[in-house]
Protein backbone atom coordinates (compact mmCIF):
# COMPACT_ATOMS: atom_id res chain seq x y z
CA UNK A 1 0.00 0.00 0.00
CA UNK A 2 2.81 2.45 0.72
CA UNK A 3 3.92 4.41 -2.34
CA UNK A 4 5.46 7.70 -3.36
CA UNK A 5 3.09 10.59 -3.89
CA UNK A 6 2.08 10.95 -7.51
CA UNK A 7 -0.40 13.29 -9.16
CA UNK A 8 -2.36 11.85 -12.05
CA UNK A 9 -2.00 13.33 -15.54
CA UNK A 10 -5.45 14.90 -15.64
CA UNK A 11 -4.81 16.68 -12.34
CA UNK A 12 -1.57 18.12 -13.71
CA UNK A 13 -3.24 19.17 -16.96
CA UNK A 14 -6.15 20.82 -15.20
CA UNK A 15 -3.86 22.59 -12.74
CA UNK A 16 -1.74 23.90 -15.59
CA UNK A 17 -4.79 25.13 -17.47
CA UNK A 18 -6.22 27.00 -14.51
CA UNK A 19 -2.82 28.40 -13.50
CA UNK A 20 -2.40 29.78 -17.02
CA UNK A 21 -5.65 31.74 -16.92
CA UNK A 22 -5.14 35.52 -16.88
CA UNK A 23 -5.73 37.32 -13.61
CA UNK A 24 -9.19 38.86 -13.56
CA UNK A 25 -9.30 42.37 -14.97
CA UNK A 26 -11.59 43.34 -12.14
CA UNK A 27 -11.83 42.06 -8.58
CA UNK A 28 -15.55 41.46 -8.98
CA UNK A 29 -15.45 38.30 -11.11
CA UNK A 30 -17.53 36.55 -8.47
CA UNK A 31 -20.26 39.21 -8.52
CA UNK A 32 -20.38 39.12 -12.33
CA UNK A 33 -20.50 35.32 -12.44
CA UNK A 34 -23.29 35.22 -9.87
CA UNK A 35 -25.61 37.79 -11.47
CA UNK A 36 -27.67 35.23 -13.45
CA UNK A 37 -27.80 33.00 -10.34
CA UNK A 38 -29.13 35.50 -7.81
CA UNK A 39 -31.68 33.79 -5.55
CA UNK A 40 -30.30 30.30 -6.24
CA UNK A 41 -29.80 28.14 -3.15
CA UNK A 42 -26.86 25.90 -2.28
CA UNK A 43 -27.63 23.00 0.08
CA UNK A 44 -24.91 21.13 1.96
CA UNK A 45 -23.85 19.40 5.14
CA UNK A 46 -21.34 20.79 7.62
CA UNK A 47 -19.76 19.28 10.72
CA UNK A 48 -19.57 20.79 14.19
CA UNK A 49 -15.86 21.48 13.90
CA UNK A 50 -13.70 24.62 13.79
CA UNK A 51 -13.28 24.65 10.00
CA UNK A 52 -17.03 24.75 9.43
CA UNK A 53 -17.65 27.33 12.11
CA UNK A 54 -14.97 29.41 10.38
CA UNK A 55 -16.63 29.32 6.96
CA UNK A 56 -20.01 30.04 8.56
CA UNK A 57 -18.52 33.25 10.02
CA UNK A 58 -17.46 34.31 6.52
CA UNK A 59 -20.67 33.28 4.73
CA UNK A 60 -22.39 36.71 4.91
CA UNK A 61 -19.62 38.08 2.66
CA UNK A 62 -20.30 35.45 -0.02
CA UNK A 63 -24.06 35.81 0.16
CA UNK A 64 -23.83 39.61 -0.04
CA UNK A 65 -21.55 39.48 -3.08
CA UNK A 66 -23.53 36.87 -4.97
CA UNK A 67 -27.14 36.89 -3.85
CA UNK A 68 -26.77 33.11 -3.53
CA UNK A 69 -28.15 31.57 -0.33
CA UNK A 70 -26.07 28.84 1.31
CA UNK A 71 -28.16 26.47 3.42
CA UNK A 72 -26.35 24.02 5.66
CA UNK A 73 -27.25 21.40 8.23
CA UNK A 74 -24.75 20.64 10.97
CA UNK A 75 -24.49 16.87 11.33
CA UNK A 76 -22.28 14.69 13.58
CA UNK A 77 -19.46 13.13 11.60
CA UNK A 78 -20.73 9.64 12.46
CA UNK A 79 -24.01 10.37 10.64
CA UNK A 80 -22.73 12.52 7.77
CA UNK A 81 -21.90 9.84 5.20
CA UNK A 82 -25.14 7.93 5.77
CA UNK A 83 -27.17 11.12 5.44
CA UNK A 84 -25.45 12.09 2.19
CA UNK A 85 -25.74 8.59 0.70
CA UNK A 86 -29.48 8.49 1.45
CA UNK A 87 -29.91 11.91 -0.11
CA UNK A 88 -28.00 11.01 -3.26
CA UNK A 89 -29.69 7.63 -3.74
CA UNK A 90 -33.13 9.20 -3.34
CA UNK A 91 -32.17 12.22 -5.47
CA UNK A 92 -32.81 14.64 -2.66
CA UNK A 93 -32.00 18.32 -2.22
CA UNK A 94 -28.24 18.35 -1.58
CA UNK A 95 -26.38 20.37 -4.22
CA UNK A 96 -22.98 20.05 -2.56
CA UNK A 97 -21.15 16.98 -1.32
CA UNK A 98 -18.89 17.01 1.71
CA UNK A 99 -16.41 14.25 0.86
CA UNK A 100 -14.12 12.63 3.43
CA UNK A 101 -10.99 11.21 1.83
CA UNK A 102 -12.29 7.70 2.53
CA UNK A 103 -15.62 8.43 0.79
CA UNK A 104 -14.18 9.74 -2.46
CA UNK A 105 -14.12 6.33 -4.17
CA UNK A 106 -17.69 5.49 -3.22
CA UNK A 107 -19.07 8.90 -4.20
CA UNK A 108 -17.17 9.08 -7.50
CA UNK A 109 -17.88 5.53 -8.65
CA UNK A 110 -21.60 6.01 -8.02
CA UNK A 111 -21.67 9.11 -10.21
CA UNK A 112 -22.75 11.45 -7.42
CA UNK A 113 -20.08 14.08 -8.13
CA UNK A 114 -19.45 16.42 -11.07
CA UNK A 115 -15.80 16.45 -12.23
CA UNK A 116 -14.04 19.77 -11.73
CA UNK A 117 -12.84 19.60 -15.33
CA UNK A 118 -16.44 19.71 -16.57
CA UNK A 119 -17.27 22.67 -14.34
CA UNK A 120 -14.12 24.60 -15.25
CA UNK A 121 -14.99 24.45 -18.97
CA UNK A 122 -17.52 27.19 -18.29
CA UNK A 123 -15.24 30.22 -17.96
CA UNK A 124 -18.18 32.43 -16.97
CA UNK A 125 -18.41 30.66 -13.60
CA UNK A 126 -14.75 29.73 -13.06
CA UNK A 127 -12.35 31.87 -11.06
CA UNK A 128 -9.58 33.15 -13.39
CA UNK A 129 -7.24 32.65 -10.41
CA UNK A 130 -8.47 29.16 -9.46
CA UNK A 131 -4.92 27.72 -9.46
CA UNK A 132 -5.33 24.06 -8.60
CA UNK A 133 -1.56 23.86 -8.31
CA UNK A 134 -1.85 26.23 -5.36
CA UNK A 135 -3.15 23.40 -3.18
CA UNK A 136 -0.75 21.08 -1.39
CA UNK A 137 -0.35 18.18 -3.89
CA UNK A 138 -0.86 15.60 -1.14
CA UNK A 139 -4.23 17.13 -0.25
CA UNK A 140 -5.50 17.53 -3.81
CA UNK A 141 -4.79 13.90 -4.53
CA UNK A 142 -5.96 12.40 -1.25
CA UNK A 143 -9.14 14.43 -0.74
CA UNK A 144 -10.28 15.56 -4.16
CA UNK A 145 -9.16 13.02 -6.79
CA UNK A 146 -10.19 9.54 -7.82
CA UNK A 147 -9.21 7.39 -10.78
CA UNK A 148 -7.33 10.22 -12.48
CA UNK A 149 -10.13 12.78 -12.15
CA UNK A 150 -10.46 15.75 -9.80
CA UNK A 151 -13.91 15.92 -8.22
CA UNK A 152 -13.53 18.24 -5.25
CA UNK A 153 -11.38 21.01 -3.82
CA UNK A 154 -9.63 20.47 -0.45
CA UNK A 155 -11.51 21.97 2.49
CA UNK A 156 -11.11 21.49 6.25
CA UNK A 157 -7.79 19.70 5.94
CA UNK A 158 -5.96 17.96 8.76
CA UNK A 159 -2.58 16.65 9.67
CA UNK A 160 -2.02 14.70 12.83
CA UNK A 161 0.13 16.82 15.17
CA UNK A 162 1.57 16.48 18.66
CA UNK A 163 -0.07 19.08 20.90
CA UNK A 164 1.58 19.36 24.31
CA UNK A 165 1.76 21.34 27.52
CA UNK A 166 5.29 22.76 27.44
CA UNK A 167 5.03 23.80 31.10
CA UNK A 168 4.30 20.25 32.25
CA UNK A 169 7.15 18.93 30.14
CA UNK A 170 9.51 21.53 31.58
CA UNK A 171 8.47 20.64 35.14
CA UNK A 172 9.31 17.01 34.35
CA UNK A 173 12.77 18.01 33.09
CA UNK A 174 12.13 18.13 29.33
CA UNK A 175 12.98 21.12 27.17
CA UNK A 176 11.49 19.66 23.98
CA UNK A 177 8.84 17.12 22.98
CA UNK A 178 9.63 13.49 22.17
CA UNK A 179 11.02 12.99 18.68
CA UNK A 180 10.19 9.27 18.45
CA UNK A 181 7.41 7.03 19.67
CA UNK A 182 9.95 4.93 21.58
CA UNK A 183 11.14 8.01 23.46
CA UNK A 184 7.51 9.01 24.00
CA UNK A 185 6.72 5.74 25.78
CA UNK A 186 9.95 4.85 27.54
CA UNK A 187 11.17 8.28 28.69
CA UNK A 188 8.30 10.76 28.72
CA UNK A 189 5.45 8.43 29.68
CA UNK A 190 6.71 7.43 33.15
CA UNK A 191 7.77 10.93 34.17
CA UNK A 192 4.52 12.58 33.09
CA UNK A 193 2.15 10.05 34.67
CA UNK A 194 0.93 10.08 38.27
CA UNK A 195 -2.36 8.21 38.53
CA UNK A 196 -2.77 9.20 42.20
CA UNK A 197 -3.07 12.82 41.06
CA UNK A 198 -5.14 11.98 37.95
CA UNK A 199 -2.23 13.16 35.81
CA UNK A 200 -1.27 11.28 32.66
CA UNK A 201 1.21 11.63 29.84
CA UNK A 202 -1.16 11.05 26.94
CA UNK A 203 -4.74 10.69 25.75
CA UNK A 204 -5.55 8.84 22.52
CA UNK A 205 -9.03 9.42 21.10
CA UNK A 206 -10.35 5.88 20.60
CA UNK A 207 -14.15 5.85 20.70
CA UNK A 208 -15.67 3.04 18.67
CA UNK A 209 -16.47 4.23 15.17
CA UNK A 210 -14.30 6.12 12.69
CA UNK A 211 -12.41 7.62 15.63
CA UNK A 212 -11.22 4.14 16.63
CA UNK A 213 -10.45 2.95 13.13
CA UNK A 214 -8.81 6.12 11.78
CA UNK A 215 -7.51 8.09 14.75
CA UNK A 216 -6.43 5.26 17.02
CA UNK A 217 -5.89 1.99 15.16
CA UNK A 218 -4.37 3.31 11.90
CA UNK A 219 -2.15 5.83 13.69
CA UNK A 220 0.13 3.04 14.93
CA UNK A 221 0.47 1.04 11.71
CA UNK A 222 2.34 3.25 9.25
CA UNK A 223 5.09 4.65 11.57
CA UNK A 224 6.00 1.09 12.53
CA UNK A 225 6.25 -0.07 8.91
CA UNK A 226 2.86 -1.78 8.94
CA UNK A 227 -0.32 -1.24 6.95
CA UNK A 228 -3.89 -2.45 6.79
CA UNK A 229 -3.38 -4.22 3.45
CA UNK A 230 -0.48 -5.49 1.38
CA UNK A 231 0.08 -4.81 -2.33
CA UNK A 232 -2.37 -7.60 -3.24
CA UNK A 233 -5.06 -6.13 -0.97
CA UNK A 234 -4.78 -8.99 1.48
CA UNK A 235 -4.62 -8.25 5.17
CA UNK A 236 -1.22 -7.13 6.41
CA UNK A 237 -2.28 -6.84 10.04
CA UNK A 238 -0.47 -9.94 11.22
CA UNK A 239 2.85 -8.88 9.74
CA UNK A 240 5.68 -8.29 12.18
CA UNK A 241 5.52 -4.53 11.60
CA UNK A 242 1.77 -4.14 12.03
CA UNK A 243 1.81 -6.30 15.14
CA UNK A 244 4.60 -4.16 16.58
CA UNK A 245 2.57 -0.99 16.07
CA UNK A 246 -0.62 -2.37 17.57
CA UNK A 247 1.27 -3.87 20.51
CA UNK A 248 2.94 -0.51 21.09
CA UNK A 249 -0.50 1.09 21.29
CA UNK A 250 -1.45 -1.36 24.04
CA UNK A 251 1.75 -0.59 25.95
CA UNK A 252 0.93 3.14 25.88
CA UNK A 253 -2.34 2.61 27.74
CA UNK A 254 -0.56 2.60 31.12
CA UNK A 255 0.17 6.29 30.57
CA UNK A 256 -3.39 7.25 29.65
CA UNK A 257 -6.49 8.13 31.75
CA UNK A 258 -8.92 5.35 32.67
CA UNK A 259 -11.73 5.09 30.15
CA UNK A 260 -9.66 6.57 27.32
CA UNK A 261 -11.07 3.93 24.95
CA UNK A 262 -14.35 5.86 25.07
CA UNK A 263 -12.69 9.22 24.36
CA UNK A 264 -13.70 11.02 21.17
CA UNK A 265 -11.91 14.14 19.88
CA UNK A 266 -13.70 16.45 22.32
CA UNK A 267 -12.64 14.40 25.35
CA UNK A 268 -9.01 14.12 24.24
CA UNK A 269 -8.75 17.82 23.46
CA UNK A 270 -10.40 18.72 26.75
CA UNK A 271 -8.04 16.45 28.70
CA UNK A 272 -5.10 18.49 27.41
CA UNK A 273 -6.90 21.83 27.66
CA UNK A 274 -7.81 21.26 31.32
CA UNK A 275 -4.44 19.87 32.38
CA UNK A 276 -5.27 16.17 32.88
CA UNK A 277 -2.78 15.03 30.24
CA UNK A 278 0.48 16.49 28.95
CA UNK A 279 0.26 15.40 25.30
CA UNK A 280 -2.23 14.39 22.63
CA UNK A 281 -1.90 13.53 18.95
CA UNK A 282 -4.77 15.34 17.30
CA UNK A 283 -5.84 16.99 14.08
CA UNK A 284 -4.43 20.42 13.26
CA UNK A 285 -7.98 21.80 13.13
CA UNK A 286 -8.21 21.64 16.94
CA UNK A 287 -5.51 24.26 17.43
CA UNK A 288 -8.08 27.05 17.66
CA UNK A 289 -9.93 25.20 20.44
CA UNK A 290 -6.75 24.64 22.44
CA UNK A 291 -5.63 28.24 21.95
CA UNK A 292 -8.97 29.75 23.00
CA UNK A 293 -8.92 31.01 26.63
CA UNK A 294 -12.64 30.34 26.83
CA UNK A 295 -12.12 26.60 26.32
CA UNK A 296 -8.53 25.99 27.39
CA UNK A 297 -6.32 26.65 30.42
CA UNK A 298 -3.11 26.16 28.44
CA UNK A 299 -2.35 29.77 27.53
CA UNK A 300 1.34 30.20 26.68
CA UNK A 301 1.99 26.58 27.68
CA UNK A 302 0.37 25.33 24.44
CA UNK A 303 3.01 24.00 22.05
CA UNK A 304 2.85 22.03 18.82
CA UNK A 305 5.22 19.62 17.08
CA UNK A 306 5.03 16.96 14.35
CA UNK A 307 3.85 13.53 15.44
CA UNK A 308 6.71 11.36 16.72
CA UNK A 309 8.59 9.13 14.30
CA UNK A 310 8.43 5.36 14.41
CA UNK A 311 10.90 2.76 13.08
CA UNK A 312 9.62 3.50 9.55
CA UNK A 313 9.94 7.26 9.97
CA UNK A 314 7.51 10.09 10.60
CA UNK A 315 4.25 9.09 8.92
CA UNK A 316 1.53 11.13 10.65
CA UNK A 317 -2.20 10.81 10.43
CA UNK A 318 -3.78 12.40 7.36
CA UNK A 319 -7.39 13.48 7.23
CA UNK A 320 -9.71 15.97 5.70
CA UNK A 321 -12.45 16.69 3.24
CA UNK A 322 -13.18 18.16 -0.14
CA UNK A 323 -16.22 20.06 -1.32
CA UNK A 324 -17.73 18.82 -4.58
CA UNK A 325 -20.72 19.66 -6.77
CA UNK A 326 -23.51 17.06 -6.57
CA UNK A 327 -24.59 15.66 -9.93
CA UNK A 328 -28.23 15.53 -8.79
CA UNK A 329 -28.40 19.34 -8.57
CA UNK A 330 -30.06 21.36 -11.33
CA UNK A 331 -27.78 23.19 -13.80
CA UNK A 332 -28.33 26.49 -11.98
CA UNK A 333 -27.66 24.90 -8.60
CA UNK A 334 -24.50 23.26 -9.91
CA UNK A 335 -23.21 26.64 -11.10
CA UNK A 336 -24.06 28.34 -7.80
CA UNK A 337 -22.47 25.51 -5.81
CA UNK A 338 -19.33 25.67 -7.93
CA UNK A 339 -19.06 29.39 -7.20
CA UNK A 340 -19.36 28.76 -3.47
CA UNK A 341 -16.77 25.96 -3.46
CA UNK A 342 -14.24 28.07 -5.36
CA UNK A 343 -14.77 30.97 -2.97
CA UNK A 344 -14.60 28.82 0.19
CA UNK A 345 -11.30 27.21 -0.88
CA UNK A 346 -9.76 30.24 -2.59
CA UNK A 347 -6.44 31.93 -1.94
CA UNK A 348 -8.38 35.18 -1.66
CA UNK A 349 -10.10 34.25 1.63
CA UNK A 350 -7.53 31.74 2.92
CA UNK A 351 -6.07 34.08 5.53
CA UNK A 352 -9.49 35.17 6.78
CA UNK A 353 -10.49 31.51 6.96
CA UNK A 354 -7.40 30.63 9.03
CA UNK A 355 -7.98 33.64 11.29
CA UNK A 356 -11.54 32.44 11.85
CA UNK A 357 -10.29 29.03 13.00
CA UNK A 358 -10.12 27.02 9.77
CA UNK A 359 -7.22 25.15 8.18
CA UNK A 360 -6.76 25.99 4.51
CA UNK A 361 -5.33 23.61 1.93
CA UNK A 362 -3.66 26.50 0.08
CA UNK A 363 0.13 26.65 0.20
CA UNK A 364 0.43 30.43 -0.15
CA UNK A 365 -1.30 31.36 3.11
CA UNK A 366 1.30 29.53 5.20
CA UNK A 367 4.12 31.54 3.60
CA UNK A 368 2.66 34.69 5.13
CA UNK A 369 5.03 35.78 7.95
CA UNK A 370 2.09 37.03 10.01
CA UNK A 371 0.35 33.66 9.80
CA UNK A 372 3.57 31.82 10.62
CA UNK A 373 4.14 33.98 13.70
CA UNK A 374 0.55 33.87 14.94
CA UNK A 375 -0.23 30.16 14.67
CA UNK A 376 2.07 27.61 16.29
CA UNK A 377 0.62 24.73 14.30
CA UNK A 378 1.67 26.05 10.88
CA UNK A 379 5.30 24.92 10.73
CA UNK A 380 4.75 21.32 11.91
CA UNK A 381 1.61 20.95 9.78
CA UNK A 382 3.28 22.19 6.59
CA UNK A 383 6.21 19.87 7.28
CA UNK A 384 3.78 16.96 7.60
CA UNK A 385 2.12 17.82 4.28
CA UNK A 386 5.35 17.91 2.28
CA UNK A 387 5.25 14.12 2.13
CA UNK A 388 2.82 11.56 3.42
CA UNK A 389 0.71 8.54 2.68
CA UNK A 390 -2.43 9.33 0.64
CA UNK A 391 -3.77 5.88 1.59
CA UNK A 392 -3.32 6.52 5.32
CA UNK A 393 -6.86 5.19 5.29
CA UNK A 394 -7.88 3.21 2.17
CA UNK A 395 -9.90 5.45 -0.16
CA UNK A 396 -11.80 2.72 -1.96
CA UNK A 397 -15.61 2.33 -1.78
CA UNK A 398 -15.30 -0.66 0.58
CA UNK A 399 -13.76 1.41 3.38
CA UNK A 400 -17.00 2.30 5.26
CA UNK A 401 -17.83 -1.40 5.75
CA UNK A 402 -14.24 -2.25 6.65
CA UNK A 403 -14.06 0.69 9.05
CA UNK A 404 -16.92 -0.80 11.08
CA UNK A 405 -14.99 -4.04 11.45
CA UNK A 406 -11.78 -2.26 12.43
CA UNK A 407 -13.73 -0.12 14.91
CA UNK A 408 -15.36 -3.15 16.54
CA UNK A 409 -12.28 -5.35 16.85
CA UNK A 410 -9.85 -2.49 17.31
CA UNK A 411 -11.86 -1.48 20.38
CA UNK A 412 -11.86 -5.07 21.66
CA UNK A 413 -8.08 -5.19 21.31
CA UNK A 414 -7.62 -1.89 23.11
CA UNK A 415 -9.97 -2.97 25.91
CA UNK A 416 -8.01 -6.21 26.34
CA UNK A 417 -11.00 -8.38 25.39
CA UNK A 418 -8.94 -10.11 22.69
CA UNK A 419 -5.21 -10.28 22.04
CA UNK A 420 -3.55 -8.09 19.43
CA UNK A 421 -2.83 -11.14 17.30
CA UNK A 422 -6.33 -12.63 17.53
CA UNK A 423 -8.06 -9.29 16.94
CA UNK A 424 -5.89 -8.53 13.92
CA UNK A 425 -6.62 -11.95 12.46
CA UNK A 426 -10.36 -11.45 12.92
CA UNK A 427 -10.24 -8.05 11.21
CA UNK A 428 -8.21 -9.52 8.34
CA UNK A 429 -10.60 -12.43 7.78
CA UNK A 430 -13.71 -10.23 7.76
CA UNK A 431 -12.03 -7.56 5.66
CA UNK A 432 -10.99 -10.05 2.98
CA UNK A 433 -14.53 -11.44 2.86
CA UNK A 434 -15.84 -7.98 1.99
CA UNK A 435 -13.17 -7.32 -0.62
CA UNK A 436 -13.72 -10.76 -2.15
CA UNK A 437 -17.47 -10.22 -2.52
CA UNK A 438 -16.85 -6.85 -4.13
CA UNK A 439 -14.55 -8.30 -6.77
CA UNK A 440 -11.17 -7.13 -5.57
CA UNK A 441 -9.55 -10.52 -6.11
CA UNK A 442 -10.98 -11.53 -9.48
CA UNK A 443 -10.05 -8.48 -11.53
CA UNK A 444 -13.50 -6.87 -11.47
CA UNK A 445 -12.24 -3.91 -9.43
CA UNK A 446 -9.08 -1.88 -9.64
CA UNK A 447 -7.09 -2.57 -6.52
CA UNK A 448 -5.50 0.83 -6.14
CA UNK A 449 -6.74 4.23 -7.22
From TrEMBL:
Concerning CDD domains, the annotation shows: PBP2_TMBP_like
Q: Is this entry keyworded Signal?
A: yes
Predominant place of localization:
periplasm
Which Pfam families would you find in this protein's record?
SBP_bac_1
Cellular localisation: Periplasm
- Family to which this protein belongs: Belongs to the bacterial solute-binding protein 1 family.
- Identification of the protein by name: Erythritol/L-threitol-binding protein
Organism encoding this protein:
Starkeya nomas
Classification lineage: Bacteria, Pseudomonadati, Pseudomonadota, Alphaproteobacteria, Hyphomicrobiales
